[in-house]
Amino acid sequence: MLLDLRSGGGEMPKFSLALKADLENLREVRPLSDSQWHIKFKCLKCREDASDSYTTMRASEVVPIPNSRGECHLVMKCTFCKAEANASIDAASITSYTSSGAFQSIVRVESRGVEPFDWKCEEPMTATSTSDQEFLDASLDGEFCDYDERGKVPVSIMNVEFRVDKI
């Protein structure tokens, strides 16, 4: 867990990036080990969108927090009020999606000065079929359809939805 030391070392507020999808003949869908997370943040000072587009974070890219001994995965300034903010990915929380048809958290994000309100997945994930065949290019940007040669059944990921929940 990364701490923001600017404000006395307290824990940063936590948010869950949740996924919902209909999985056909798939046991799980999991993020790649070094996935990029595309997130939209709202500035807590001015309540405007902190940037014009999705901001990309990666758990492997650690940056120092300005004027602090702490570190995080993203340092940003609000495009409207110029307030400084930072965010971190809880790498230990990254998990596979296994709850077909229901929302499930697949990663947690901690933030200070901003809060995530939307996210999307632009990178492929690894999908594992019910017969344990892996599909390394399972896209959640639209629909994913393929054929499981081992299980002799079609596989798909459909009706994908994303949401952010405060923990």
Architecture overview:
The protein is built from no helices and 14 strands. The chain has 167 residues and is mostly beta strands. Strand 5 (63-64) and strand 6 form a beta hairpin.
Query: Helix/strand/pairing class, anyone?
Result: mainly beta
Basic shape: elongated
Number of strands: 14
Q: What's the order of the H and E elements?
A: EEEEEEEEEEEEEE
Number of H/I helices: 0
Determine the strand fraction and express it as a percent band: over 45%
Give a quick precis of the structure.
The chain has 167 residues and is mostly beta strands. The protein contains no helices and 14 strands.
Could you list some keywords that capture this structure?
167 residues, CXXC_Zn-binding_euk, zinc, single chain, mainly beta, three-stranded antiparallel sheet, disordered N terminus, six-stranded antiparallel sheet, metal-binding, zinc ion binding
List the helices and strands and how they pair.
Elements (H helix, E strand, L loop, with lengths): L13 E11 L1 E5 L5 E8 L11 E4 L4 E2 L6 E2 L1 E4 L6 E7 L13 E9 L1 E7 L4 E5 L4 E5 L5 E5 L4 E14 L1
Antiparallel strand pairs: 1-9, 1-14, 2-11, 3-4, 3-10, 5-6, 7-8, 8-9, 11-12, 13-14
